[in-house]
Structure formats: C-alpha cells, structure tokens
Amino acid sequence: MKQGFIHASGKNLIDGSGSVFQIRGVNLGNWFVPECYMAAAGVGSFETGVYTTERALRAMKANPNLTDEEIEELYHIYMQSYITEEDFKEIASVGLNTVRIPFTWRDLTTDGITLREDAFHYLDWALAMCEQYGLYAILDLHGAIGSQNMDFHSGDDASFNLYGSPENREKTIGLWKIIAERYRDNTVVLGYDLLNECRKAPHKFGGKICSDFYDELYRAVRSVDTNHLIFIEYFTFPIHGVGIRHYSWENVAAEYHIYNLTPFSQKTCLRMIYAMHLISGNTRVPVYVGEFNAWNKVSDWDATLDFFNRHGWSWSSWTYKANELVYKRDYKKEHAGRDWGLYVLDIEPVDLSTAGFDEIAEVYRATVTGNARKTYIHDFYRRRLR
C-alpha cells in the first residue's frame, strides 16, 4: 500500500509524504465499458444498430447461438484480454502515475441491488496491478442505473431515467456506499469520480440537478469513507453546474473534460476553458482534467501539458487503447485523422447478435495489446514524461 491518502489542500493535491502531487494519467476506456466508436464488437442491425453495454447484452441474449453461460464466459474472456498485467507495466514505463477506470453499474450488480458473484474481481485485480507497478487508480462510475446522460458511453443511450426515478437514485447512492466501504482504507485508490458527464436533460449540459445529485452521492460516500478525494465533474464546461463553494464539501477536486471540437486552435480552446474556470466558483480547489485528447498534433500535446503544468492542473488522457478500424471507417467524419489511444488495434468487429461463441471469443482474445501498434501519443509520453 502507498503511504497515506492523496488529499486536497487549497488548489493542490498532496500525497502521503506531504509533497505536491500532480495526476498524470490515462483512462482505461473501452475495458469495462466498450464504446461503439472503438469497440471490437458490434450489434449488427439489432435494435438501433449502435453498440452500448445494455444493447450488446440484449443482442447476445437474443442470439440463438449463445447460452447465458457462454455470454458470461465471453465477458471474462474480454476482460482478461483487453487489459493485462503488461498494460499496467507499460503505463508506468512511459511515465504516467495514475489510471482512471471507467465502469458501469452492470459490472458490479445485476439489478442495481444484487451484487454479481464476482462483482469486485476485476477492480480488485486492477488495484493490485496498480500497487505492483507504482500507480494510483481513480474509480469512475461511467454509467449509473437509468443513465445520467443518455449517451452511449454510459452504457445505455435509450433511457434518461436517473434523476426522475427515486428508485434509480437510491440504487446509485447505495452502490457508491458499497464501493466506498470496500475501498475506504485502500491508499492505491486515489479518489472517487462519482458520475461521469452527467446531463440535466438529454443533450443538455450539466446544471443544478446534477450538482445536487453529486451532493447526495458525496454525503453517502462520506458517511462511510472520510479518507478519499472526491471528484465533482462539470460537463461540458466549468460554468455548467453549481460551483463547489455553494456546498459544504471537503477534500474535493473540480473535474473538467477537454475535447477541442471547435474550429479554434488548441491554445485558444484552453484559454477559453481557463477563463470559464475563473468565473466558475471552483478556483479554490484542485482541478483535474479527467479526460482530454489533443488529437494528431504533437505540438498541441506539448501546449496542453504546458498549460496544465502552468496552472497546476492534474490530468488523464482519453484513452489507453482503441480499435482504429472502427473509428476511422464507421465514424470517419467525426474522427478522421485522430488517434484516441497510446495503442490502436485494427480489428473487424464481431456481430454479437449473430456470431457463435468461438467467433466472438477469437475476436475478444485478439484485443490484447500485443496485437496493437503504438501511436505518436505513446512516444510523446515517453519523451515528455521520462
């Protein structure tokens, strides 16, 4: 175990030895939560044809070639292939110090209440790997029961039924209490990212309803865990939501996600984000950029890290590994010329609605990083951080 907990002190993060700490991390996206634009699987023409965790599960259950036992086995084959011990070793070797681990409620529970028999197997294993290779981990609830944003990356793009459902709210609160109770004494866990990219309504950026629910989640976690840092996300800009100063929160950090999807330069985008940060009400706490990508210009990557360092902001890039064939073929307009990961695969997605067990298993096993190629992002980190 690491010495002491990372905690917030003014605008800085402080480690167990009392030194200022900067998160330099990467997301393990597409592992617990495969996403349609970089997944190694698809759902064919099933329902809308867009891959999400929920739709993939329904497609597999409707597939006459698969039994429930085989579906469960395929889950484990993918989880044990996509991220292995070698990946944690590699992340540490390029100079990164933290992994952010996105997961959904489906990874821990079957119905929002009943824990899976192996609920914490992969999270526990990931934390053991982090400890072995000197990394911290941030636990990120990417998908809450009912979906907090109706986006595919929540695992469910067909519903927006978190805030409007007292039952789903209580289940999500209860799930966080279970997580916090389990890891409250674990110093490898750097902090809890309570809810990824919450929206106040479908396609509407986060507002007071999101901030108030963060408050409910915060109080639930604090009832069982006073040790860990808690991240409060502002989606999509620092001004979307109620500032941290309006709540009686302690040991928290403001979290932003930065993707320059504008015609402006990366430097201009960063200046705009900083200007909004100054009027956000979050200037007295640490800032963590939980997701970002500087796309395909090494100069933009340098400029971005220079900006983070200048302002003392922590960061984790999105993402560690992706399937390039999918995002450059099926999402060409949105992602042309962009590398999402330090590594990229080139795998034809398997159709979960029609394929047999052996075909799916073969594709899942092929997602190991040994089959991927390094991108300029990998080389950038090795040059910049080592």
What's a concise summary of this model?
With 386 residues, this protein is α/β, with parallel strands linked by helices.
Annotation keywords:
386 residues; alpha/beta; TIM Barrel; eight-stranded parallel barrel; three-stranded antiparallel β-sheet; 12 helices; 16 strands; 35% helix
Plain-language structure description:
With 386 residues, the protein is an alpha/beta fold. It has a single domain (7-385), classed as Glycosidases (TIM Barrel, Alpha-Beta Barrel). Helix content is 35%, strand content 18%. The protein is built from twelve helices and 16 strands. The protein has helices at residues 53-62, 68-82, 85-93, 121-132, 166-183, 208-222, 266-278, 298-311, 324-329, 332-335, 357-365, 376-385, and strands at 7-9, 12-14, 20-21, 24-27, 41-42, 98-104, 136-143, 189-193, 229-234, 252-259, 287-293, 314-317, 321-323, 343-345, 350-351, 373-374. The chain has an eight-stranded parallel beta barrel. Strands 1-2-3 form a three-stranded antiparallel β-sheet, with no helix packed on it. Helix 2 packs parallel to helix 11 and helix 5 (166-183) packs across helix 6. The two termini are 24 Å apart. The model has no long low-confidence stretch (mean pLDDT 96).
CATH class: Alpha Beta
Mean pLDDT: 96
* Poorly predicted ranges: none
Please list the strands of the largest sheet in the order they lie side by side.
Answer: 4-6-7-8-9-10-11-12
Q: Proportion of β residues?
A: 15-25%
Give helix % range.
25-40%
